[in-house]
Amino acid sequence: MSNPAKSSVAVPYTMTKDNKLVMSPLNWPTQCVCCGDHSPTTVSLQHTARFSSQTTVTSYSRTTTQSGYYLGWQIPCCDACRRHWRKAEPQVSIPSILLLIGFLLMLGVGYALFEAGLSESPLAIGGYVVFLGPLALAGYGIHRWFIQACLRAATRLLTPSCTGTGLGVKVSSNINHVIFVFTSESYARDFAGLNHLLGG
Questions:
Q1: pTM, two decimal places
Q2: What is the 3-state secondary structure (H, E, C) of the chain?
Q3: Cβ neighbour number for residue 87 with a 10 Å cutoff
Q4: 63, 75, 56: which is closest to 167 by C-alpha?
Q5: Among 43, 48, 50, 60, which residue's Cβ finds the most Cβ atoms within 10 Å?
Q6: Angle of helix 122-156 relative to helix 94-115, nearest 10 degrees?
Q7: Which residue(s) pair with 180 in the sheet?
Q8: Alpha-carbon span 1 to 30, nearest angstrom
Q9: How many beta carbons lie within 10 A of that of residue 47, not counting itself?
Q10: What Cα–Cα distance (Å) separates residue 33 from each residue in 39, 53, 85?
């Protein structure tokens, strides 16, 4: 399948004096956001506008404070498109878990060498590097294979009218707009028309 065209629709919002985000309720076409067929089912789309993260480091602690405005919508999506979306974007990535385990194992081996007094031994350091290289390459290879396998599985589930393997809409925001990017130009036009907005 060729890369789908994308259309964006910007939805304005305002901030009140007491720092509350105000945005008009959105109307969604009844068609599936991906294939365009009538869809009685929906999926959840979430976004945090004006997200910020600040880390404070003291002599005794490290504290991270996050802030933002949580937004959520129910997007029409048929069961068939929900299935290929879940295949393409799995909620749990097994290779990512394996990469984390490998990283922790690497740290554990390094710490064990340090505790054993071998941190300055050329032989021990050489063995550690030899161990680390293949481990990193294997982890990267498994991760790439998993992503491609997910995309192949999702592609097999597509119908001729699907506009992509993913959900069909992505959301982002700037200082005064929430921006929806659709893979279907006709869906973007319908969405913009229902909400009296200009598409991009």
A1: 0.66
A2: CCCCCCEEEEEECEECCCCCEECCCCCCCCECCCCCCECCCEEEEEEEEEEEEEEEECCCCEEEEEEEEEEEEEEECCHHHHHHHHHHCCCCCHHHHHHHHHHHHHHHHHHHHHHCCCCCCHHHHHHHHHHHHHHHHHHHHHHHHHHHHHHHHHHHCCCCCCCCCCCCEEEEECCCEEEEEECCHHHHHHHHHHCCCCEC
A3: 18
A4: 75
A5: 43
A6: 170
A7: 9, 171
A8: 25
A9: 18
A10: 9, 32, 11
**Spans of all domains in the chain:** 1-77+167-200, 79-166
Contacts of residue 27, defined as CB under 8 A and 6 or more positions apart, other chains included, come to: 191, 194, 195
Side-chain-side CA neighbours of residue 193 (13 Å): 7
Distance CA 91, CA 82 (A): 13
The two tokens of residue 19 are 């720092």
pLDDT tens, the chain, 200 aa long: 444 556 999 999 999 999 899 999 999 999 999 999 999 999 999 999 987 777 777 777 777 766 789 999 999 999 999 888 888 776 555 556 666 666 667 666 666 666 666 656 676 666 666 666 676 677 777 777 777 777 787 778 778 888 888 889 999 999 999 999 999 999 999 999 999 986 55
